[in-house]
């Protein structure tokens, strides 16, 4: 009986995390190398990850090979709109950066570093 109650509590807590985290949803990246993306942020276990839901170029939506690929993973929610210890992939350079994010309303400040190279972007909420 204790196992059943424990499983039910874990399920409810996991659902609460998914419903409560304000970063979940779709975000528009900044233009990088002429393209941008809509990234669907979701939970991956107890962490946050983001997958390229749609890619865009100057003409509009396009069938990029990157659609469906993880762009953000292993991001840890720290509370108060702060996220850290994650990874982010930059498709235009094929580099993976150690990343952190800061959420303020419908604006997500994303930054990452690899060696001594650091980059920042401001993403806006799509939905």
TrEMBL record:
UniProt xrefs under InterPro entries? DUF2147
Keywords assigned by UniProt, alphabetized: Signal
Gene3D superfamilies attached here? 2.40.128.520
Domain DUF2147 spans what residues? 25-125
**What range does the record give for the signal peptide?**
1-20
- Signal as a keyword? yes
**PANTHER family in UniProt:** BLL6627 PROTEIN, BLR1215 PROTEIN
The protein in question is named DUF2147 domain-containing protein
| Organism from which the protein derives | Nereida ignava
The organism that produces this protein has a lineage beginning with: Bacteria, Pseudomonadati, Pseudomonadota, Alphaproteobacteria, Rhodobacterales
């Amino acid at each position: 009986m204790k196992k059943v109650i424990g499983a039910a509590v874990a399920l409810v807590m996991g659902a609460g995390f998914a419903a409560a985290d304000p970063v979940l949803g779709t975000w528009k990246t900044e233009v990088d190398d002429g393209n941008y993306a809509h990234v669907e942020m979701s939970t991956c276990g107890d962490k946050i990850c983001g997958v390229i839901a749609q890619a865009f170029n100057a003409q509009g939506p396009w069938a990029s090979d990157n659609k469906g690929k993880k762009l953000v993973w292993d991001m840890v929610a720290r509370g108060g709109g702060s996220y850290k210890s994650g990874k982010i992939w930059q498709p235009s350079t094929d580099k993976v950066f150690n990343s952190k994010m800061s959420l303020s309303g419908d604006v997500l400040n994303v930054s990452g570093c690899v060696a001594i190279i650091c980059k920042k972007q401001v993403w806006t909420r799509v939905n």
